[in-house]
Amino acid sequence: MAHGPGDRLKQDFRPMPQQDKPMTTQPGVGQDTSDHRSSPALAPPPMHPAWDRSDWLLVISLTTVAAMVILPNLGDRCLWQDEAESGLLARAILRTGLPVAWDGRLLTTAVYGAELTDSMLWKWHPWGSFYLAAAGIGLVGDTPFGARLPMALLGCLSVGLTYLVARRLVGDRWAACLASVLLLTSVQYLLMMRQCRYYSMLVVGTLAAVWAYAELPRRRGTAVLTAAMVWLFHSNYVTCACVAIGLGIHGVIWRRRGAIWIRLGGAAMVTAALTGPWFLAIGLHKSAGTLDAVGYHRDPPGKAFVKQLFVVNQFVCPWIVAGGLAVGAARQRLRVGGAYALVACLTIPILTVVPVVLWAGTRYLIHMMPLGAIVVAAAIREISLRNDVVGNIVAMAAGVTNLLPSVACGLFPTRVGGDLLDGDFATGPSAIRQAMLKSEWAGYVQELREPFVGPNEAVTRFLLRYSRPDDLVYTPFGVAPIMFATDRRCAGLLKPTARARPGWDRLPDYLFNRDAARWLIIRPAWQPLEGYPSLLNHWSERARRTGCQVILHPLRVADIGWGNRPEMRYHYFTSPGSRPSRDIAIVELRPEERTKVRSDVPPSSSPTSGRGHGS
């Protein structure tokens, strides 16, 4: 009797009968592919059918579904701060071929030029994502949609790649499909895939590197691993280092065969040759301590480590799953190798390096989310091999609820989340309440369908309507979104001491002097060092000295921390509306003669309806 793909999916969960001849299987991670002798490290169980047409159909279907939940309404929102930096540098690439931060009018910087070389080249991040954004803007248009599209397409591709890598590591079609579905049900993952940043590049590069590592010592594994590491470096060099460290740890413990290490050494040398010159030429090795020098706040290492543990629990691999796997291994019911060990090794630098070098946060471990989904899916497969009903229940709970990560958090006192974790994560009873259905999906669906008016949208629409192209703007936060959406110049971006840098003394005075601005953006979530009362008093003094009038324009849109960054604890799916204590306002310094002839800007104007450029 013929069986369809659905029957084969069900069969993948059941133990296979003993056979006189070994089944034809895909070689697993840790297999000696030169003489077909399987080592115990990471080889998948010989129970899965060989790759066939149904696998390709699943990859295409999963990628199509990903496009349906990632691409809609992609250009509705303004680029937030980091995205807008990428967009501005992408424009520079289209003009000059290089990410030059100064174009003669606009300067792309958020920390007083610390991200730039003396020749105005961007140095804080590798340039790969800027070139991809430039390709999108050049092909589709100079809009948020054009800037985001290349990254979003990679995000769609990542779901299909997750199936491919899971199939390679676990060997089970049902588990591979479940891993991809878990990604599709993660709103946090989908949000990150919609950004004009390097996040989706990291995911694709890491999946390619893991697949290639599984193929070693085959030559194709070496070639793909080299390309993947070069890709990762030019996406984010910290993530590249973390992946390299994780693979190295795994190789030292489980893959000590000489042929594999020869391939790894060759891949490392080629990668260094293709990345080292850029690293040295840009002067990145001289930038140590720059974050601390410009006053960026960072948690103490111990606190950052604990926060990162909570991030891993919530978005990579729930502690309850990791604990269950550890118990199973201790009782010798599970092999300590396999995909579990590989993902555990890749997690080590995420917990130890990233919180010290950068910060604890979802953005810096986004590349681990597909691998965590593979581990969870493989663990559910282990359950199903023993009890089909229980396995299906756990799979449903993982897909439609937040139960798995919330159970462990619920064991901690409530004050742990509020005090130790700064309110970033819920603990105690509030964590249990979050374990219900994934209610964030309601908000995400609205984001895919409804227009959004937040701080960036309200400010840029107002400036486009009421300011002049040659006007200068000062704001304590959100400079890049204003410049990308309105092309208005921003004042006070550099400290006076920056004039000492070679050639920077020839820059226009307004870059060093915020008093040159005509417009002041008041954002309650971002206080200037001296506070807004002192700053407004200073503007009143300026008005009296220059014979101008100070006019306040309330926008009736509440400010949002980080300009609506795509992390769940900061993100707004719908327009924040008005909250008097948090509303944004714009202060205009209007010359008297202009006041007499121009009265089209009432003090209570609020551009929160309709659509404007950059939305």
Write a brief structural summary.
The protein is mainly alpha-helical and 615 residues long. The protein has helices at residues 5-11, 53-70, 81-96, 128-140, 144-170, 173-184, 187-193, 199-215, 219-233, 237-254, 258-281, 290-293, 301-315, 319-330, 338-352, 354-357, 369-386, 388-400, 403-410, 414-420, 429-433, 440-449, 455-466, 479-486, 532-546, 592-597, and strands at residues 31-32, 37-38, 472-474, 489-490, 519-522, 548-558, 583-591. The strands form two sheets. Strands 4-3-5-7-6 form a five-stranded mixed β-sheet, sandwiched between helices. Strands 1-2 form a two-stranded antiparallel ribbon.
Task: Provide structural commentary.
With 615 residues, this protein is mainly α. It is built from 26 helices and 7 strands. The chain has helices at residues 5-11, 53-70, 81-96, 128-140, 144-170, 173-184, 187-193, 199-215, 219-233, 237-254, 258-281, 290-293, 301-315, 319-330, 338-352, 354-357, 369-386, 388-400, 403-410, 414-420, 429-433, 440-449, 455-466, 479-486, 532-546, 592-597; strands at 31-32, 37-38, 472-474, 489-490, 519-522, 548-558, 583-591. A hairpin with a 4-residue loop joins β1 (31-32) and β2 (37-38). α5 packs parallel to α17 and α6 packs across α17.
